[in-house]
Each structure stands twice: as structure tokens, then as C-alpha cells.
Specification:
By secondary structure, the chain is mostly helical. It has a four-stranded mixed β-sheet with strand order 2-1-3-4. A hairpin with a 2-residue loop joins strand 3 and strand 4. The N and C termini lie far apart (77 Å).
């Protein structure tokens, strides 16, 4: 049964304004409570690699890469984010976290608007926004700067979709200028991360669920693609370009390391199990039987009656994980930010229906008419929200905060030692590190970002030992002994 409007919408314009303002302040406090400690988390090892890679690339090359999705340059908008910030703030992680927190907060609002435009109603959209403030299954999203690609991707993805839905709700089709704006926003999402590639398919899904569909006549299909399907058709062009860059090129992402494609059923099952567990904030993965039962229940709730918002959100959950479901190494956690949007709106809509039914039952069966159905509905909603917040707060304090507090500690320690030692080297010289505390190329990345000289020849003795005579010819020699960075020469 559908929830009654009298309990799920605010009754008057004045009351609606007051409630919206109060709820916005609540969301701001709720978001800050869960994410304030992210400001002091250090750079992760991947951040140093990402920053160094972005810094090595000339600004003009980064800008051109935004317009060439078929090129081998991987996630150029995320690289631009790193490049701008490292040039402005150096190796200070706080400004990075501030910017990401602001984008996450804007995304909370966009999720609220997305839910409203899909027809979820005021209260379900508001609850979806609350869920988006912090999700324990995606804690890296709030703490780890390396997931800035996911934050940027969701930001532009949602901005493009919300803008499109606003136009369609007015009964219009996007004009040339609006199409350009949507295409620009989508290209930014695509340049942030390949998760955005599902946008054209979801636009088609929205049109099929909420508006008219073409007949089987091919002429009608062509007319439809030039009309309601124009956004999907146009955004499919850069999507296919990205697909060619990832799969068609020998140096594409799908041919490298853990991003190698694996189309086996076993990989799909593992991916679905992981995404189900992470989306539901479960510390241990579900068994296969539970995964099947959960998805069957979701599809039943979506299709038991004509509910466009639930049907569309079920497609969001089915379609948006596809870009990461076939990698040899499964992805989850913060990579599921866009699928989570569908889950947040779906779960909030179902919960509001449950709260409405419960309030109606308590009013009639338990003879609580004096309390009032609206107050009972509010009590159920508040109780549900409180229990959810309590659960994710427990996970955050027992798992999230202790784990994330250790993130990048060694990287930060070495960076602080660079600040204390404050070494200087001649331009285009050879720099040798006899020892360093890392297992990969992190010292090279830190060194590049500290000295800001693209002509430096940095050599790690640990990775490829040099004979003594070659070390003697080096311009600068550093060592790392007993936890201390030392300039030998």
C-alpha cells in the first residue's frame, strides 16, 4: 500500500519551510558528527602515486585529456583535482579533505533533489539524504582522499541527472544549450571514473518508466531517439569512446593488473556478494543464499505494484555496478557510491510505506486515535532513523575510526621528516636513496612532490642496486636509518 500524503508531506507552505530549514540544520550536524575526524587523516600511499602522476603531466595535457575520453589517460578529472591541489597546498592533506567533505555535503543535497524529482516524496527523499551523510559500508569515501574519483564522479553524475529531470518534469525536452550542459556534466563524471558509464542506460530506463516508449516500428524508434531519447543517444558517444580507450587500446585500463577483465560467472557472483554486503553495511559478507533472497525481496517490493520510483531505483541497483563487476579483482566499498544512491532512495521509500502502515495499524487496532496517526508515523520514522544512526555509529567507532586513523601514518612520518630536514637539490640532478621504509615506489613519489623538479633522476637502491662507483657519482645521496631521514651528501 502507498503511504498517505497527509503523513508523508508537510501540511502547509509555512510549516514546510520551517521543517525543511530545521531538517537541513539537522543534516548538517549529522554529517559533521560522522565526518569531522576525516580532516586529520593522512595521505594514503595511493595518494602519493596519484599526485605524482598528475604533477608529472603538464597542465595543458591534463586539460586536453578532458576532451579525449578514448585516450590512454586514466581518470583525467581526478588527476586535475590532484594537480590543482598539490600545486596550491603541497603535501598538506587538510585542504583536500575539506574540499571532498564539501562535495560530499553537496551530494547529500543532490540525492535529496534526485529522490524528489523521481517522485519519492518529501520525507523519503529527506531520509535518503540522511543515509547519504554517512554509510559505514563505504567509510573510505569519507576518510581516504584516493577515493576522490568516486566523489567527483557521483557529484557530476547526480548534477547531470538532476538537471535533466528538472527539464523533463516541466514537460519539455532539453534544448541545444541544455543538451550541451548535460553532456558537459556527464563528460566530467566520465573523466572522474568509469562508474559514470551507466548514465545513458539509466536515462533510457527513466524515459521508459516515467514517459512514453517507442513502438517496434524503426521509424518511430528513430523519432523517439531524436526526441525523448536524445540525451541517451548523445551521451552514449563519449561512453563508447571511453569503452574503446579501456578495452580497444592495448594500453587500456582493462588490460592492466587488477583491472583486467574476467567475464566468468564466478567473478560476477563474488562481485554481487561483495556489493550486497557493503551496501548493507555488513562487516562480514553474506552467503550466496542470503544474497539471492535479498535481491529477490528487492525485486518483489519494486514490482508488486506500479511504483515508478521503486522500479527505477531497482534498475539503478542492477545497472550501475556493471562497470566494476567484471574486474579480476573485485571492487566494493566507496566504489559503490552511485549504486548506493539507488539503495538510499529505495530503502527510504519502502521504510516510509512501512511507517505509514504501522501508524495506521496502531491507530485502529490499538485504539491510539488520541495520539494521532501523524504523530505515530513521526515516532516510527524517528525511531527507525535513530536505530540506523546508532548502528552505523557503532561500526564507525569499532571499525572505521581505528582503521582509518592508521591510514598513511608512515607516509606522513616521512613527509614530516622532509619538512624538518628541508633538503635542497640542484635542478636536473641525480638523487639516490640508499634505504627507505617503503615496499614500493612511495619514496620516489614523495621526493618528486617535495622537490617539484620534473628533471630529477631519482634512484631507489632498494629497487635496483647501484654499484659503489655509480653512487659516488650521484649528486645527492639520502639514507633512512633507525626511522630517520638523513642527507648523506
Amino acid at each position: 500500500m502507498a503511504p498517505s500524503p497527509e503523513v508523508t508531506e508537510f501540511p502547509s507552505a509555512g510549516s514546510r519551510w520551517w521543517h525543511k530549514s530545521a531538517f537541513a540544520i539537522f543534516l548538517l550536524g549529522y554529517f559533521w558528527y560522522f565526518s569531522w575526524d576525516s580532516l586529520w587523516v593522512h595521505f594514503a600511499p595511493d595518494d602519493m602515486m596519484n599526485m605524482a602522476s598528475a604533477w608529472r603531466t603538464k597542465p595543458i595535457q591534463l586539460l586536453l585529456a578532458q576532451l579525449t575520453p578514448w585516450s590512454a589517460y586514466h581518470r583525467p578529472l581526478g588527476a586535475l583535482f590532484y594537480s590543482v591541489n598539490v600545486n596550491a597546498f603541497g603535501l598538506n592533506s587538510v585542504p583536500f579533505h575539506v574540499e571532498l567533505s564539501l562535495m560530499l555535503l553537496v551530494n547529500v543535497y543532490l540525492i535529496y533533489r534526485f529522490g524528489k524529482l523521481l517522485g519519492a516524496g518529501e520525507i523519503p527523499a529527506g531520509l535518503a539524504a540522511m543515509l547519504a551523510c554517512y554509510h559505514a559500508g563505504m567509510m573510505n569515501l569519507y576518510y581516504n582522499i584516493a577515493y576522490s574519483y568516486d566523489v567527483l564522479c557521483a557529484f557530476f553524475y547526480l548534477a547531470a541527472f538532476v538537471y535533466y529531470l528538472r527539464i523533463r518534469q516541466c514537460g519539455r525536452l532539453p534544448g541545444a544549450g541544455q543538451l550541451t550542459a548535460i553532456l558537459g556534466l556527464y563528460l566530467c563524471a566520465l573523466n572522474s571514473k568509469e562508474m559514470a558509464a551507466t548514465f545513458p542506460i539509466l536515462v533510457l530506463t527513466y524515459e521508459w518508466i516515467y514517459h512514453t516508449r517507442p513502438t517496434k516500428d524503426w521509424k518511430d524508434v528513430v523519432r523517439w531517439l531524436r526526441g525523448p531519447g536524445r540525451v541517451a543517444a548523445i551521451t552514449m558517444i563519449p561512453t563508447l569512446m571511453l569503452f574503446f580507450g579501456m578495452v580497444g587500446r592495448p594500453d587500456g585500463l582493462a588490460h592492466t593488473g587488477s583491472y583486467r577483465l574476467d567475464l566468468s560467472p564466478a567473478t560476477v557472483l563474488i562481485s554481487v556478494t561483495r556489493l550486497t554486503s557493503d551496501l548493507l553495511a555488513r562487516s562480514h559478507q553474506f552467503r550466496t543464499g542470503w544474497v539471492v533472497a535479498i535481491w529477490a525481496l528487492m525485486l518483489f517490493l519494486a514490482w508488486r505494484r506500479n511504483s515508478p520510483v521503486l522500479r527505477f531505483c531497482s534498475f539503478v541497483l542492477l545497472i550501475t555496478p556493471i562497470p566494476i563487476m567484471f574486474f579480476a579483482e573485485t571492487r566494493g566499498g566507496a566504489c559503490l557510491y552511485i549504486p548506493f544512491v539507488g539503495l538510499a532512495i529505495f530503502a527510504s521509500t519502502v521504510f516510509v510505506e512501512f511507517a505509514s502502515f504501522t501508524a495506521k495499524f496502531m491507530t485502529r487496532a490499538l485504539d491510539l486515535r488520541r495520539i494521532g496517526r501523524q504523530r505515530l508515523f513521526a515516532a516510527v520514522v524517528v525511531a527507525g532513523a535513530f536505530l540506523w544512526a546508532r548502528q552505523i555509529n557503532h561500526i564507525k567507532n569499532t571499525l572505521g575510526r581505528p582503521t582509518m586513523a592508521q591510514l598513511g601514518r608512515l607516509t606522513d612520518d616521512v613527509t614530516q621528516q622532509f619538512r624538518t630536514l628541508n633538503p635542497h637539490v640542484r635542478p636536473h640532478s641525480t638523487v639516490v636513496f640508499l634505504n627507505d621504509p617503503f615496499v614500493d615506489w612511495d619514496m620516489t613519489f614523495i621526493c618528486e612532490l617535495w622537490f617539484r623538479d620534473r628533471g630529477l633522476n631519482i634512484h631507489l637502491q632498494r629497487m635496483a642496486p647501484l654499484p659503489p662507483e655509480s653512487i659516488a657519482l650521484a649528486d645527492h645521496v639520502f639514507d633512512y636509518r633507525d626511522g630517520k631521514l638523513i642527507q648523506v651528501r
